[in-house]
Every structure is written in structure tokens, then in C-alpha cells.
Amino acid sequence: MRVLVVGAGPAGCTAAVALGARGHEVTVVEVGARIRPSGPGLVLQSAPMRALDSLGLLGACLERGYAHDEIDLCDARGAVRTTLRPPSLLPGRPASIAVSRVALAEVLLGAVTASGSELRLGTTVTALADHGDRVEVGLSGGTTRTVDVVVGADGLHSQTRRSVLPDAPAPRATGQLVWRAPAPRPAGVSRYSMLDGGPELGKVGVVPVSDDALYVWLLEPDRGAPRPAPERLAEAFRDRLRSFGGPVPLVAGSPLGEVDVRSLQSLLVPLPWSRGRTVLVGDAVHTTTPQMAYGVGMAIEDAVVLAEVLAEDDDVPAALRRFGERRFDRCRLVVETSVRLGEWEQYPPGDPSLPGRLTGEVLAELARPA
């Protein structure tokens, strides 16, 4: 089949690789003139690692990333309260890996090229006309493509979603800001540490992503204050980090890379996730906050499942409907759990064990095959 994928982020690239591996003729269009990943890094847990492994991409990600088998949960001073030791779902592999978003993009884009897919940068979809047995796609520049399937992987603010599911809900703010920046990895910082300063100070994570690099993040309530000017972002981020101990002072004293700060938003589009021969994947239908560290992971799983269901049924619209039905409950679990954890970070529950218990229960469920 001829497939057009809209968007060259993790969802779009893994979809292209998964579909290309099944023998489909894939074209990926990306509105940007170049690929510019959003944010400094991310964590991939065992379930999405399993999906990457099925595509032959896990080895390259391990080579470019940093293995984590444990996560230290600390108070604001850096004293370890407990250490999480999630199980690995892949023999001989770590429980999770952290990787810079640039490195992950390079791995995925390399795989797209190796799969024989066509990548067109600076190109967007201007029109979709589903004729039942095919889709006529208008592209910027006045060209058209006739394809069998369109995959909308164009993110939280998806134009494809607006076109095919105009009544879908809008993303909603969850009341928190996230600050993120890359930094050199000091020799003494080798573990993933989370430091909890409560609702007033927020929560900080220090995440090694390679032998010489890491990223640091901070979650805090979004009080509606004006954002600092771009030239003051690093200074404002350091000001917020000064309240924390442990590895944070070492990192804050290092040269920080580009600081990214944004309001957290979530989105869960009700079924169906498709109309005719067009389907939506990744953040276009299920955007999550970072509490479960599963946003990109869910997008990667989407790609693998989409390729599977299209291989099982010649009725494309039916296969695309079944894709959404198969994915919805799992993605809802991630979105709703992440939002709940974020609410508890802002308004702690009376029982302080609730966040940990909920996280453990959900991770156990996500360990099941997608």
C-alpha cells in the first residue's frame, strides 16, 4: 500500500519504519525545513523499548543513550527516601534508557532512510479527499499524492486532527510548568535522581543521557506569571534549582544548554481515531504529561500496532478503527494516571503512599504486551 505519514517526530518516523518493514511504500512529510526535536531528553521504559526492539532500533538507542536500572527518589536536600527498581521486560537489557531527543531523532531518521521511505521536509498537507478506495492528498507547492492510507502524526496541535476529526476536544492545561535544559554530566552524577520539594518548590529530575551529558527538569505550579525573556531563562531556571540539594548544585553550576519552559497540556481524543482511510497516532490523539515518562513510548507502540493491524485486514477503514480500539484503553491509562499524579504534586493526598502505589500498579499493567 501507499502510505503518507504527516509529521517526522518519533510517532511519524517509527510509523514509517514499521510500515516500511511490512513492504508498504511510505512517504513522510514534515512542515519544518529541518528536524528540530522539542526538549533536551527523554526516558524510554521497558515497554516502548520492547517495541523499538521489534523494529530493530533498540541497539542503536542503547548505543546513543544511558542505561538506568534504578531511580533514586529523594527529598529536596537530596537524601534518598527510596530507590525504584523496575523490572526489565527484555533479557539482558536495562529497565529503561535515557537518551537525548537529538540522538533519538538521528536514530529514527536514519532508520526511515534505510527503510526506503521518502522524507519531504518543508512540506505540509493542504487538502484531504477520501474517495473510499483511495485518498487524494494536496501538498504545499501545489502537488498532489494518491495514497491508500494517511497517518496523522503531527502532534498536539495536529492539523490532520482538525481536518478529519473537527469535533475532537482541545488540549487542556493541567496547571503545571515544566522547565528543561541539557547540561554536561559531572563525573559524580551517574544515577537518575528525582528530588521532591513539595507544592511550593516543585520537583526536580537529574537524568544522565550519555557518558558526558544529562538533562535536568523541574515541575512547578503554573501560577500564570509572565515568562522570563529568552536571555534570562537560564538565570531563572538556576534560581529555581537553588532550593535543591543532592546532585542539583553540581548541575546548576554547569553551563546549561537551551532552556525549554512550557505549560503542560493533556489530550485524550475519544474513539474513533480514524475516518475512512486516515488515522491519527501519538500526541495527535493522546498527549500526556511527563509524570509516567510514557509519552514518546506510547507513540512508538502506536507505530508497531498500526503496522500489525494493517497487515491483518485488507479492509483499511476497519483495520484503522480496530487500531484505535486496541490502543485506547492503554493510552487512556497513561494520560489519566499522569494527570492524576500531577494533581497530587500540586495538592498532595492525605495518604502519601498513594502516588507510589498508583505508579506501581500502572507500570505493571503497561508491562503487558501492547
Structure commentary:
This protein is α+β, with helices and mostly antiparallel strands. It folds into two domains: 2-38 and 99-170 and 265-366, FAD/NAD(P)-binding domain (3-Layer(bba) Sandwich); 174-264, D-Amino Acid Oxidase, Chain A, domain 2 (2-Layer Sandwich), CATH 3.30.9.30. It contains eleven helices and 20 strands. An eight-stranded mixed β-sheet has the order 6-5-14-15-16-13-17-20, with helices on both faces. Helix 10 runs antiparallel to helix 11. The longest helix has 31 residues, at 316-346. It is globular. The relative contact order is 0.17. The mean pLDDT is 97.
Write the layout of secondary structure elements.
Layout: E1 2-6, H1 10-21, E2 25-30, E3 41-45, H2 46-54, H3 58-64, E4 66-68, E5 71-75, E6 80-84, E7 96-100, H4 101-114, E8 118-121, E9 125-130, E10 135-139, E11 144-147, E12 149-152, H5 159-164, E13 172-184, E14 192-196, H6 198-201, E15 203-208, E16 213-221, H7 233-241, H8 248-252, E17 260-268, E18 274-275, E19 278-280, E20 286-287, H9 295-312, H10 316-346, H11 354-366
Parallel strand pairs: 1-2, 1-12, 2-8, 5-14, 12-19
Antiparallel strand pairs: 3-7, 4-7, 5-6, 9-10, 10-11, 13-16, 13-17, 14-15, 15-16, 17-20, 18-19
Helix pairs in contact: 1-4, 1-9, 2-9, 9-10, 10-11
Low-confidence stretches: none
Largest sheet: 8 strands, mixed
Name the CATH superfamily classification of the largest domain.
Answer: FAD/NAD(P)-binding domain
The fraction of residues in strands falls at 25-35%
Distance N terminus to C terminus?
A: 24 Å
In CATH's first tier, which class of the largest domain applies? Alpha Beta
**Tally of structural domains:** 2
Q: Radius of gyration in whole Å, from Cα?
A: 20 Å
